Amino acid sequence: WSTTARKVEGRLEVGGVLLTDLVAEHGSPAYVLDEADFRGRARAFRDAFAAYDVFYAGKAFLCTTTARWVAEEGLCLDVCSGGELTVAERAGFDMSRVGFHGNNKTPAELRRAVELGVGRIIVDSFVEIERLAAIVAEPGATTRVMVRVTAGVEAHTHEYIATAHEDQKFGFSITSGDAFEAVRRVQDAPGLELLGLHSHIGSQIFDSSGFEVAARRVLALHARVSEELGVTLPEMDLGGGFGIAYTTQDDPADPSQLATEMTKIVEHECRALGIPQPRLSIEPGRAIVGPSMCTVYEVGTVKDVELDGGARRTYVSVDGGMSDNIRTALYDADYSCTLASRASDAPPKLSRVVGMHCEAGDIVVKDEFLPSDLAPGDLLAVPGTGAYCRSMASNYNHALRPPVVAVRDGATRVVVRRETVDDLLATDVGAVSG
Ligand code: LLP
């Protein structure tokens, strides 16, 4: 839960706003964004990593309002597509504080990034180095580059979000020598200024040993570059991936603990390798916005189903589902939820919260003990939906994507409005206006 969430006589309040009031005004489902919590987490990272640059990873959740909050709290911004770059631009984000990622940026996107003066472009393939070199070959053009490397680490997380083992699409392998070759080519390209190496080992990670191994391998390459090319790389980025608690079993590290551990590793390794310490940067997304949002749904139906062996399971259907949170279906992610609209003394019953989509895997919360008197019209709130929920939302079954409603000091502010049927049909060229 975000820091301002609390129950008032059974009713959930976030940012001083009762969710019953929020839904009465803005409808359901809705993502509820706790502004103070978001800013607080951003600040905690900035303060803990005060000697470094902290890039908020926009892929977790980005809109112009949050981009402005990120700027106001003194963080930089990581974007990974032309679309995210446009949001940054519209928000008036200082482009020199933007990092541009992606394994298949188009030549047009690269050109735009150079024209906008993006602070760093993280290159991911030899083809891209060539493309970028051609763009900056034009008189006056120049850009700062980081080389994304694959540190060869097995991060302990879901296969789809682990990114530092060899057999996946991102980065240049350190082991095969490609990473060194990429550094050489960037170094040889006039107009490309090499800042350093970038490693991102995966997402929703709790065990810091993965970061430690990655840092060691990346710094070893820094040392090789210094020795063989006579170049001191001024920076190193260790990416994001810091886990958050989705259920009470998860135990995330806090930013200052992470900062202390990372600093220790980097200092130690640099001393051992006899190289100067590069300036470090990190890219947390989930750890900032994840806990700042919850999703509020209205219960539509409640159904008891008999399982093999005679046990029963209660299926609680809500007015959203995999179109606003794909993570349970896609990664088998664990979420929890609570009755948000009233108090209940009814005994708890093991329930499964499901969506309204035509798919059996459309599960929001796999298992939760909910009051046995749960009924249509009740509101349920699911915490921890700030990261990779709205940003991965879809219009599956022609669902309208919910709004993002910011709450602060008892007031609500819509920062992304609810989609309308007109939005939905805007790209359907055959649609006749109603
Ligand atoms: N930096 C890079 C280069 C990344 O690829 C990512 C995430 C981040 C930073 C931010 O990672 P975070 O701190 O948010 O874990 N859709 C998946 C997560 C995909 C992460 C992709 N890259 C999910 O819902 O779990």
Automatic annotation (TrEMBL):
The keyword Amino-acid biosynthesis applies. It comes from the Bacteria. Residues 37-289 form the Orn/DAP/Arg decarboxylase 2 N-terminal domain. The modification N6-(pyridoxal phosphate)lysine is found at residue 59. CDD domains: PLPDE_III_DapDC. It catalyses: meso-2,6-diaminopimelate + H(+) = L-lysine + CO2. Its cofactor is pyridoxal 5'-phosphate. Substrate binds at residues 286, 327, 331, 359, 388. Its EC number is 4.1.1.20. Pyridoxal 5'-phosphate binds at residues 241, 283-286, 388. Keywords: Amino-acid biosynthesis, Decarboxylase, Lyase, Lysine biosynthesis, Pyridoxal phosphate. Pathway: Amino-acid biosynthesis; L-lysine biosynthesis via DAP pathway; L-lysine from DL-2,6-diaminopimelate: step 1/1. Homodimer. Belongs to the Orn/Lys/Arg decarboxylase class-II family. LysA subfamily. Specifically catalyzes the decarboxylation of meso-diaminopimelate (meso-DAP) to L-lysine. This is Diaminopimelate decarboxylase.
